[in-house]
Amino acid sequence: MNAYRSFGLFGLVLLLFGLLAGVITSSWTSRYVLVHLIFGGALLALYLFTHIESLKESVSGRKTKYGTNTIVYTVLTLAVLGFVNYIGYQHAWRYDATEQGVFSVAPQTRQILEALDRDIEVFAFFREAEGTYARDLLESFTNISERFTFTMIDPDRRPELAQEMEVTQYGTLVLTSGEESTKITEVTEEGLTNALIRFTSADRKRVYFAIGHGEPDLEQRETPNDFGQLEAALDNEGLEVESLLLASVPDVPDDADVLIITATERPFLEPEIAALERYLDRGGRALFMIDPRAGAELLPLLEARGVEVGANVVVDQVMQLFAGPSLGVQPIVSDYGFHPITEEFGERTIFLLARTVDAAEEVPEGITVTPLARTSTNSWAESDIERLFGANEAVMDDDDLAGPVSIGVAVTRTPEAPTDPEGRIVVFGDSEWVNNSNLSLYYNQDLFLNSVSWLAGEADLISIRPRGTRASRIVLTESESWSVFYLSVLLLPEIVLLAGLFIWWRRRR
User: What is the pLDDT of residue 191?
Assistant: First the structure.
């Protein structure tokens, strides 16, 4: 009879894990659940049958009372834990402990969701065993705004709905609001946020790039020195981008919300300079990017508006691992001015061959010049450009400006009449920092887009944007997910518990 004594414990363990699996999976006919319930019930029945007399004697014993108390306390503890878990489920709260916040939505996404003035409903078309990442992403959006809701739809089960919404492939999100709708297949935070921007924008602001002087190409996205990726980033912000040949028009078009000037080795003609002056005088908004040894014809225009562009190149001393300090002409910026463009902006940006841009000694009345980006204290503005480029030497002399130095400013011009628009200008001493090679480095894209958004009056778009590269994830099918669950949550703990009971039983013999 003693040989069957351990069957009771083994039977209870099997029954416990069988019941636990059935409750969690809601599948009482799965092989795991049936095997555990049948064998656990059989072992427990065998134990009861072989120990019926000893059980009767022990019911009224002292040990039974202690055992009953233990069971009662255990049940109460489990009940409290279950109640706490239920409360937590009903009042979800998330905390992202990662350094880069890879599991949190970007500040720009949060701003857009909090500013929604109408209901947005998303229909996500995924197969039943897919779409886990999409569901998590959409749930993170719904946690921020009650105006954002979503529904997961299996197009194989609801083909009529997929046909009605003209969905032709799996993994499609359909955003709807009233009679309007739009579709995207890029199921990322960046893609969904960009769709929301385009979908909720009442009208698209127009950004012109001045061309005709050898400026980078707006259509080429693969060549390193062009602006194709920059044009795509502006389009994702809901901005309409066009080229403008200044030499072929008498004036900058009235529908230009922002004009971007990239200074090159080929100078602007006098009629073009005059058109720029008229545009800025009537409250135009422009972004100038002027490389060292370029754009000399533009400097008087900027100086008249309180901006001084230095005839120098910023040299930055950086520390390299195992190599010590070294000199470079690629200053990394982490010091920003107090301005809406850089408000709560504490991320690094990197510039390539930059010159100083700062407020002039005499700023005209009604104009405010605010530094945007300053280099480190280990930098300086090298005025001997010929020695720097000719002999590849940089030594700080008395004529050089010690760091930190400003390489970008924002200018605000108060209108003479209350009904006139406020003039705005942003100037950076470099243009290569936003070409195809460098736009995605650090937070270059965010600083540039924030500048354009401020110029265009799009305050809601001034923020840190979603990263294109998110946390690494593995996508499992439904059967693979359940296999991982059974192995990690049920089988491994069960094996450890049964092994412990077996060792205990062997030692008791």
Answer: 82
